[in-house]
């Protein structure tokens, strides 16, 4: 996304004049950009919006995995009689 510089300023190691346009590298801290917008140092240029990247989907993926596990549990026949490990543990004293 491109931004318009609203007043003469220095960002990182480069000096910009009012009216210049800047495009931040991929991976630039979003909070840094937000701060520059909040202090009215830069403003987004209309029509230069990039596609929004999905936010951290970790929680969503976990939920999806849980749903898939539940679906597979429903598909699996009841194996309650086949819980035997092949070892008779009744004769073992502890």
What do you see in this structure?
The structure is a single chain. The chain has 94 residues and is of the alpha+beta class. It is built from 2 helices and 5 strands, in the order ββββαβα. The radius of gyration is 29 Å and the shape is rod-shaped.
> What's the shape?
rod-shaped
Q: Count of DSSP E strands? A: 5
Largest sheet entry? 3 strands, antiparallel
Count of individual helical segments:
2
How big a fraction of the residues is strand? 15-25%
Average pLDDT value? 79
Question: Residue ranges: pLDDT <50 for 5 or more in a row?
Answer: none
**SSE topology string:** EEEEHEH
Across the major sheet, the strand order is 4-1-5
Radius of gyration, CA atoms, in whole angstroms: 29 Å
Helix content: 25-40%
SS-derived structural category: alpha+beta
What is the straight-line distance between the termini? 69 Å
């Amino acid at each position: 996304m491109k931004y318009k510089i609203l007043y003469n300023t220095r960002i990182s190691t480069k000096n910009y004049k009012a009216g210049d346009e800047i495009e931040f590298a991929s991976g630039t801290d979003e909070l840094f950009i937000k701060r520059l917008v909040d202090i009215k140092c830069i403003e987004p240029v209309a029509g230069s919006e990039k596609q929004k990247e999905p936010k951290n989907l970790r929680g969503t993926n976990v939920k999806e995995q849980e749903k898939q596990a539940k679906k597979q549990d429903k598909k699996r026949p009841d194996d309650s009689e086949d819980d035997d490990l092949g070892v008779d543990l009744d004769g073992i004293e502890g």
